[in-house]
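Q: Okay, next protein. This is DEAD/DEAH box helicase from Actinacidiphila bryophytorum. I've checked the sequence twice, so it should be correct. Can you predict the 3D structure?
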Amino acid sequence: MEREAVLKGARLVGAARALGGDHARAVEAVRAALAPIHDAAVRRELDAIPVARLQDVTEGRLRLGSVEKSGLRTVGSVLDAGAYRLRQIPGVGQRTADQMLAAARRLSDAVHETVAVHIDVDRQDARTTVLVVALHVLVEAGPEARRAVDRAAALSERLEPLLVLARPAAGRLRMLLAGREKKARARAAAAEVGSLVDEAERAGLPELFAQASVDLLRGPWSGVEAWVGFELRSAEYYGVLAEISGQVPDAARAEGFLPDDIAERVRTQHLDDTHRRVSLRGYQAFGARFVLAQRRVVLGDEMGLGKTIQAIAVLAHLAAEGQSHFVVVCPASVLVNWTREIEARSALRTVVLHGPDRQDAFAEWKGRGGVGVTTFEALRGFPAPGGGEVGLLVVDEAHFVKNPEAKRSRAVALWAARCERTVLMTGTPMENRVAEFRNLVGMLDADVADALGEGDAAAGSVAFRRAVAPVYLRRNQEDVLTELPSLQQTDEWEELSASDEEAYRAAVLAGNFMAMRRAAYMRPEKSAKLERLREIVQEAGENGQKTVVFSNFKDVLGIVARELAPQGAAGAPVFGPLTGSVPAGRRQQIVDAFAQVPGPAVLLAQIQAAGVGLNMQAASVVVICEPQLKPTVEHQAVARAHRMGQVRPVRVHRLLATGGVDERLVKLLAAKTRLFDAYARRSAVAEATPDAVDISDSELARRIVEEEQARLRAPDAG
């Protein structure tokens, strides 16, 4: 019996060690493939840094004029030159050469630590293909393999010292030769080994280890298969790459610049992954821990950072702790997306509490548990839960309930009051008024909301962030995603044609603000904006790129659809328009169909309908037909394409007409954007006038109409 336990324990440790070795080899393959690509990226960066930067490192002590005249114009060239060549330059002695090289090496070390490797799907060279194939192995093995490796390491740590003590019990002769104390220790250790082996077998660890080893050794993968996987799941590839390379974001940024005491409490919060089927980035794990540690919070991460994944991680953790009932409240447009994500990323069951049978579904959810996914409107028809009944209430796009007088806001507030844990998720919690954000916080913590007075707005973002730290976490893309391709935003200013001017003047004199905003499209045969839009789509199509065209107006999208006939859009099929009247499930189908078309395609979308919940990473060109009234609307729309999972650079073209409503809106948007940056982001500058904070859309429209009417009636107008 003792001998059998020791042999089983030895076999289990052998399997655990083998798995650890398989994983280590897979990781080393990534490191080996990454090294030459990373070194080349570092070299390009050093070759782009002018030699004058060495002055910054040495606080201006170096005189570099003669060095530049000698042909050494970059930090990279100084490192290549070395001490001997530097000393040949007139005026450069041993000390100066040593100082220059020391400064250059400091810059080199900094670049080496910070430069990130970007994988370009349009440049599939041999070296990058080797890296993608190596990453593919770990991505395909998935979080189960990582979990198996961690459990194997933990089990080995416990078993190995016991097996050493239990060694005499593995054979009769050894036991005969062992002394009394050694026999006693061996029997006790063998008993403990047997207990651990039984525990491991009940948990299915031998099978888990074997399957993980098979997954890590599967292959060889073809380059084509790996590249296809990368395009479909690039966020997972980059997540593995970041973990192995150590290219993790700055801790303070990843932790949302929380005060030390709160950040430390969050770091020590355990996060159970038993029911989760997705690996988390470091900042995502921190976000999930923040929700668990603080219990009632606003998760305000910028669009594209995976708030949904973080919420699912929290749901999975609470399910592992024994909680059985959860509720997700979201706009109808993303209800399908939520059910898909929960089912794909976790082992939790979902129940859709929406549609004509929602009361029956609610009764089933009450009886069997699971994650009930419902809409703001449907929630009003369900009885509020008793205390402790719901393990977590998740409210997505929570800025929809910032008005405390709205019926849906009251329903959410009632449910939030009955749930011990609530997370309000929104990438745009601030919008234009600090007061609106205070209303959201009030659903979670009345004391924090009361403390968040107008004085915090006047004091600036530092005071504001400190006041809301117990309930608010926000990270921006540039803070945590080093791998995002570039985002190039261009304002396309167009001179209105005579026909455009005529339509615009008629709208102004009629005092119709919305007609003024879309006048540039109403006479399509001579529309300057439409002509530019055709050119952009044509160019994108010729480059094999997909384009998303956003407008606030259905009739503008209808005109664009007619103008972008296949023969005028480089043969690219046109999808949509995707508008608010399109059912939520159908919206996702349209986006999926657009993504699945090989080569160029065009998706037309109403900006308010498509700026919420739908992911459009297939697009690498974005066109916004007119400036919007709120900067967050444009931010959301762009973030649907430029988000985690995007693999190509994204170009954004905003079509603007000179001299009228567009120009006035752009100036006002700039002021609003600065305010948003000061509070919802992290800027230390927060000096905004009350008008900039509190101006309403109707007041803005009235002001612009009056100013434009005065301009066009002036004697020198036109």
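A: Here is a summary of the prediction. DSSP finds 33 helices and 13 strands in the chain. The chain has three domains: 1-247, 252-479, 486-713.
Q: Noted. On to the next one.
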